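BUG-318 | component: ligand-complex export | severity: low

The export step for magnesium ion jobs runs without errors, but we want the raw record kept on the ticket for reference. Input record follows.
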Amino acid sequence: MPTVYFVVPCYNEEEVLPETVKRLGEKLNELIKSGLASEKSRMMFIDDGSKDKTWNLISQYAKDNHFVAGVKLSRNRGHQNALLSGLMTAKEYCDCAISLDADLQDDINVIDEFIKKYNEGCEIVYGVRSSREKDTFFKRSTAQGYYKFMKALGVEIVYNHADYRLMGKNALEALSEYSEVNLFLRGIVPLIGYRCDYVYYERNERFAGESKYPLKKMLKFAVDGITSFSVKPLKIISNIGTIICILSIIGFIYALVSFFMGSAVAGWASTMCSIWFLGGLQMLCIGIVGTYVGKIYSEVKRRPRYRIEKTILNNDGE
Ligand code: UDP
Ligand code: MG
């Protein structure tokens, strides 16, 4: 029976916490009774530097209910960092950790399925939204466009999966070796490998409080996702530079022809040619420099290049 930790990042969530603790507590009890989770399982709340009473609530609940655990960050570090801090803390005590949002928008009834898949040997189980009917038109179209764009840029990302997932101890260990600062967990987790599976669910609306992801944060998150996982934008710049260089040669020939036919104003041909050619050349050069910057960038992050899952040495001493 695995020890399961729910990892829940909370930022200014005093309005939803009482209900969340109640619902998650019931779920945990159910899991323990049905033999899916051990008595040592916990629900761990991470206070991401909230300005309201979130931490007071968490510490109070932890006093009254030994199934509640809490982590407090020194200041607001954003959802992804908060989640990582929780997962890394939980890693020491659990067999598997399930990350979910404090507003319980993600259907907690599929947790049974998560654990069953884990018991069958899956190291990572992704929660995938089966539809986006409850989203606004804007959110739905931008989100789906984003997933497609990421795919086109060559980033491995699970379609319609947010941060609702189960990770086993091995996967968590692997995650701890990714030392990047611009954290985009959705992009990192698929790189870990191991056996994985998907569970489909319907996403509900927030039952209280407001979204802690305003448009500005969402945009930053989206850009982070692209620039942390793809150097294609840099390549696009150098491609545009090359195209402009070629065009400038055509322009050069055109200008030369009009010059000799005498139809051009004096000075026009040489000015036009240099503007186009230099513009193209500069872009091309920026693109090349950018390609190197991109390489340095991914080196500096020191991502592990592989992870050995098992070794059979056939040593005598085994
Ligand atoms: N969150 C956080 N730090 C932040 C912003 C959000 O820990 O700086 C948490 C928040 O408490 C919630 C989760 O991230 O548990 C997802 O936020 P929210 O539900 O507001 O996002 P949405 O569902 O609207 O995308
Ligand atoms: Mg939410």
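Assignee comment: Attached the raw record above. Residues 232-301 form one domain.
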